[in-house]
Every structure is written in C-alpha cells, then in structure tokens.
Amino acid sequence: MNETGISAGDTAWLLTSAALVFLMTPGLAFFYGGLVSRRHVLNTLMMTIGALCVAALVWALIGYSLAFAPGGALIGGLAWAGFQGVGGEPQADYAATVPHLAFAAFQGMFAVIAPALTAGAVVGRMDFRAYLLFVALWCVGVYAPVAHWVWGLGGWIRESGALDFAGGTVVHIAAGAAALVAAALVGARADVKRSPLRPHNVPFVLLGAGLLWFGWLGFNAGSALTAGGLASLALVTTHLSAAAAVLVWLAIETARAGKATAVGAATAAVVGLVGITPAAGFVSPAAAMAIGGITAAVGYAAIQWRTRLNLDDTLDVFACHGVGGMCGSLLTGVFARQSLNEAGANGLLAGNPKLVLTQLIAVVATLAYTLAATFVLLKLVGLILPLRLPLAQELEGIDRHAHGETAYHEATGDDLFDPAV
User: Fold this and answer.
1) Which residues contact 295 (CB under 8 A, 6 or more apart)?
2) Longest dimension (CA), the chain
3) Tell me, what DSSP letter sits at residue 36?
C-alpha cells in the first residue's frame, strides 16, 4: 500500500472484476441472440451492444455523479459530472484502497448491463433508434436514482439498513420491472400466437450463459472492493448458487416432462446467479446453495405463469431477473449473518426477522418506482420516435431492415458450386 492508501492488489482485483463484468454484456448478447429467430439475431446482438455504448457514455457524463456524488436521500449531485474530480486518489467513503476512477469504472459496468437486460422483453419488434434513446433516458431517470438509494451516501434504502451486495435491486429488479413495462407498451409479436419462439442456436445460448457465469464472478466478488476474504466468500457463494439452481431446474424439468434441456440449464444458471447477487457477501456457502435452489424453483414457476398471460415478455426478463432479484433480496433477509460481514446484518435465521421487512420495503419501492418511471420514459420516447417497427419489417426480419445485413448467408443455386460457401 502506498502513501495515498491505495492497495495495488485491491486495485488489480477491481480492474479485473470490471473487465469480467464488461464481458457479461457480450455474453448476454449471445444468450439472447441464440434464443431468438434467425431473422432477428443481429438486431438482438446490436440492441445489447448498443446499450453498452450508450450507457457507458451516459454514466461518465452524468450517471455516476447522480448515483454516487454527495446529494440527498433520493438523488446524488452533479459534483462528479463528466468524471470531474474522479481521478487517481481514493474516495474513502466508497472504496478507501483503490483509485476513485477504478471504483467509478467498476460501477459503470453495472450501469451498462442493467438496461441491456431489458432488450430481451422486446426483441424482434422494437425500433432500434427508439431503444437506444430509451436506454439513455432510463440510465438517468431510473438506474442512477435507484443506485443512489441503495449504494450512495445518504441514499434512503442504504440508510434503512437494507442489504444489496451486488445489485439484486439496483440491477435485476429494476431491469426486470422495466422489461415488463416495455413488453406491455411495445406490444406482443405479430406472430406470437401462430409461431412459438424456438431458439435458433442453442450453442449460442449455452455460450452466453457460460460467459455470464464467468463474468458474474467479478460482478459479485468484485463488489467486495478488496482482494481478500470477503471477495472469496462472494465468489464461492455465487458459483454454488448457480450450480444448485441448474440442478434443481433440471430436476423439475425431468419430473414434469422427462427431459433435462440445455436451454433450461442455461436459464437456470442465470436465475441462480440473479438470486445470489444481493446476498453474495452476506451469507454462507450452504445458504447460497439454498438460495440458488429456491430461486430456481420460483423462477421456473414464474415462467410457467407468464406463458399463460397475453403479455409477451419474449425472453422472460421479468421472470428471470425481476422475480429472481426479488426472491434473492428477500432471502438475503432470511440467511444473512453479520459474523460473515461486519457491514451486513443478521437475518431471520440469525434472530432478526426485521431484516426481512426491511428488504421487502426496498423491493417494493424499487419495483413501484421503476414501473412508473419506465412507463413515463417510454411514452416520452414514443413522442419522438415510433416504438415499434412496421408490421412488414417485423415479419420479414429486423436484421435486414434496421442493419442492412443478415446473420447467415442464404445459399443460392450458384453457391453450390462456390468452394468458399
């Protein structure tokens, strides 16, 4: 540790974790891209990568300041807009052993993937330009305020004592709720009743889930902000929760249909990772396995319930991330133990049932605000740009119309004689 208090080890770990979390967004692109029709795969990938770029710039310009700069109970100030004053010295209120800029960069990766998650609810039909505008507005109007509530100095959820180690409320509940509103306002796919969605590339789905799992180790363990015992705990609990979720999900599938599917395994891994996110640094490895298994069962039931509705949340973003985040946040109130993390609190099983109520208040507030704010923002976007593509373009495929290309070369008769095909 040098004279400024910066630890080279902590800094290296946080920067590595930031890179791991960055990888989650391309991983999400493959996960979503494999699940959709081949007519829309490029657009699905582009929505995710586009969200990455838009959110990164918004975060640097204003989002980070609104989320973490000194402010009130509801929103931060503008002292750090444009990363002004965010440099190589530590910001001790958040992370005393790493450069302030490293902390801001790490948090920025969370701000990137949160809006990208919403793409799964509207794939195959939302105007690409409208989606990017929505991401920019959502980062400012939803993500930054909720992040301030939960993690920012003076944020009211933080002050209430609610626990969210790595973003169960900030990322997953907020993104899941936003996806629900987007699916409702954009409307169902034109062929949703006639043509059930079939993944066009299951290996893509598994690849994406694997990249998400890998990156999630940095997502959760990096949130310790130091390279030590707490990061080790968060990494282990993250891994075990995902593994338990996959096995429980496959057991349910096998009991119900006699088949254990690859798409089910990939979905279960994501659900288990979502469930442990708020709890990762507050619970034991054994509790993590329980959280993963419970969240998988609840997530599976949520997807079955959603399929009976007219709402077309195409890739079940709300069931996986919204419901998974709520489940994990409440289970944090059950399993948390302060002996594992002095910055945490005891939960129900450690003799403190009040923590469950505190977690519930945070969940309900985040859900309610995100639903209302997302509705307003999408209505505003709709006044500027059409939210939805024309029917003919949707049925033919967004890739060709929005991006002027397709994911796969369509062979012609002449191609049969071309050795390059």
Assistant:
1) 241, 245, 271, 272, 274, 275, 276, 324, 327, 328, 331
2) 74
3) S
State the residue for tokens 């609810």. 121
First to last CA, the chain: 57
**Of 162, 50, 151, 64, whose CA–CA distance to 105 is shortest?**
64
Dist. CA 123–CA 323, nearest whole Å: 20
Across residues 362-384, what is the average pLDDT?
Answer: 98
Tokens encoding 265? 């395994």
Lowest mean pLDDT among 302-311, 323-332, 404-413: 404-413
Distance CA 204, CA 85 (A): 42
CA–CA dist 421, 419 (Å, integer): 6
> How confident is the model at residue 412, as a pLDDT?
43
| CB atoms inside a 10 Å sphere around CB 62 | 18
**What's the confidence (pLDDT) of residue 415?**
40
pLDDT interval class at 421 (50, 70, 90): very low
DSSP 61: I
Which pair of structure tokens corresponds to residue 10? 């902590």
**Domain extents in the chain:** 8-73+93-403
Distance CA 184, CA 207 (A): 29
Class of domain 8-73+93-403: mainly alpha
Could you count the other beta carbons within 10 Å of the beta carbon of residue 379? 12
From 167, 242, 230, select the one nearest 13 (Cα to Cα). 230
Per-residue pLDDT tens for 98-132?
999 999 999 999 999 999 999 999 999 999 999 99
Query: Locate tokens 């129900």: which residue?
Result: 348
d(CA 14, CA 283): 21
Distance (Å, whole) CA 181 – CA 100: 35
Cα–chain center distance at 420: 40
Cβ pair 1, 90 in contact under 8 A: no
Q: Calculate the alpha carbon distances from 385 to 42, 55, 127, 133, 187 in Å.
A: 21, 19, 8, 9, 16
Answer whether 306's CB lies under 8 Å from 313's CB: yes
**Residue 130: what are its φ and ψ, rounded to 5°?**
-65, -35
Which of 178, 175, 366, 171 minimizes the C-alpha distance to 277?
171
Contacts of 260 (CB under 8 A, 6+ apart): 250, 253, 254
